[in-house]
Design brief:
alpha+beta, eleven-stranded antiparallel β-sheet
């Protein structure tokens, strides 16, 4: 009787263990369905969701840091045609994107339109000096006039330069160079980012993801158009991906992330580099690919971005993007800082540039489950182009076309401790607890089942040999 009770007990235990293990197994796909549904629901851009709150107003402080290229030998360049020698000066830091999106409208086609207000507040504690620090920099007006006015009218440019006592270089404050000053030659305001404060980065129309979560955040229209008009090609004029602040949930590290940047007037992609821990949250680091600004001989997709064979060595020069077509014909060239991944001649015509992957690459740290960008650094350099002239005196000693670095910028943000704790509490911890319950039930159930099964086998073996158990 005792032996029978033991057998029954072991069988019942094994059955119980199997049931518990099966329950744990069932909870795995069921739990995944719950997790997927929760994340997708919270990722939709509509009032009341986590994504909406972060989308309307940036949760983390966004800063723009500027490093200027201070020219050390302006006289030698003008009088003897020497190569310019520059020294990096910075950072000068401003808080930006502190204003929430405005004019938000939810449309019937599951898109939302909005304006993004622009503004900059100087942060002295994060800067090497005040905005009144002076820099010897390229003369924006002289170089702009050289490039924008036809050669047959360069005689008039020469008269304007002489009458205003202007030169190829000028000494200006950080504030003037960034946000504007009255130029003596043009008799009007000019600046690298002027006007900026109280302006808007166009009108955006993005998908909310309500009908298709894979499209959430993707740009449908910018400035009312579904494509750009800056490039003479369908491919280059495509607006791909999001604005980079977030992506569709459940990010696949084997696939590139696409985003559009109005700063460089084009769409780009970033590839997975590594997994990192950010304040206890696993993130995927995606970086701008080295061939993003490669010459068309290396990356044929860039052929339509090459606009002037004369200044790009017949489209063989790498590392710069001529965006004059979206800058009112101003001779603006965009690159990575210090011409990272650029052709060697870019650093040979201007001395003092030292590209560094760690400090000059653009990256985004994306939480893979939600698709939220929790930390990023967008790094770009603003350059201007000038060349030799037989008419304009300050350019007579110039030997060849020069793409000259003026300033490079690091736009960066990272979630703070409070936001990280909230993120972990509201989402990550719930998912972790559910996963622990799944594993615990499966593990305990299997352990009970195996233990009871082994004990039953031993009991049967002993019984067959006539031993009392």
């Amino acid at each position: 009787m005792s032996c029978c009770n033991r057998r029954c007990g072991l069988i019942a235990g094994a059955v119980f263990g199997a049931v518990v293990a099966i329950l744990g197994g069932i909870l795995i796909p069921l739990g995944n369905i719950i997790i997927t549904g929760t994340v997708e629901k919270e990722a939709v851009i509509e009032p009341g969701t986590t994504a909406h709150d972060n989308w309307v107003s940036a949760g983390a402080a966004v800063y723009r840091q500027f490093w200027f290229f201070d020219v050390g030998n302006p006289i030698e360049v003008l009088d003897y045609g020497a190569d310019p020698v520059v020294v990096e000066k910075g950072p000068y830091t401003y808080r930006t994107r502190y204003l929430p999106k405005t004019n938000i409208t939810y449309n019937s086609n599951n898109t939302a339109s909005f304006l993004l207000p622009l503004g900059a507040i100087f942060e002295p504690s994060m800067s090497v000096g005040p905005e009144e620090d002076k820099v010897t920099a390229l003369n924006l007006a002289v170089v702009g006039a050289y490039a924008m006015i036809p050669t047959v009218l360069h005689g008039q440019v020469e008269k304007l330069i002489k009458s205003s006592n202007s030169s190829l270089f000028q000494r200006r404050t950080v504030k003037e160079l960034l946000w504007g000053y009255t130029d003596p030659m043009l008799k009007s305001s000019i600046g690298l980012f002027a006007p900026y404060n109280d302006t808007f980065d166009g009108l955006y129309n993005v998908f909310t993801g309500k009908d298709d979560i894979t499209k959430v955040g993707k740009i449908d229209r910018w400035r009312g158009e579904t494509k750009l008009s800056f490039w003479d090609d369908v491919y280059c004029n495509m607006i791909n991906g999001t604005d980079g602040s977030s992506f569709a949930p459940f990010v696949d590290k084997n696939k590139p992330l696409y985003f559009f940047s109005s700063d460089i007037c084009r769409s780009v992609s970033a590839g997975f580099e590594q997994s990192l821990d950010l304040k206890g949250i696993e993130v995927y680091r995606f970086t701008l690919q080295p061939d993003t600004l490669a010459s068309p001989t290396i990356n044929p997709d860039n052929r339509c971005y090459c606009r002037d064979p004369k200044t790009t060595r017949n489209c063989t020069m790498a590392g710069v993007l001529d965006i004059s077509s979206c800058q009112d014909r101003k001779p603006i060239f965009i690159s990575l800082p210090h011409f990272l991944h650029g052709s060697p001649e870019l650093r040979e015509t201007v001395r003092g540039l030292y590209p560094d992957e760690e400090h000059h690459v653009t990256y985004m740290d994306v939480e893979p489950m939600t698709g939220f960008t929790l930390r990023f650094a967008k790094r770009i350099q603003v350059n201007m182009m000038y060349g030799p002239s037989k008419i304009i005196t300050v350019l007579k000693k110039v030997k060849d076309y020069t793409i000259f670095p003026v300033v490079w910028m690091n736009e960066t943000a990272s979630l703070d401790d409070e936001t990280a704790d909230m993120f972990k509490k509201e989402l990550i911890s719930r998912i972790t607890i559910l996963e622990l319950i799944q594993k615990a039930l499966l593990g305990v159930g299997l352990s009970i089942f195996v233990a009871c099964l082994l004990s039953f086998v031993v009991l049967e073996k002993c019984s067959r040999h006539g031993k009392i158990v």
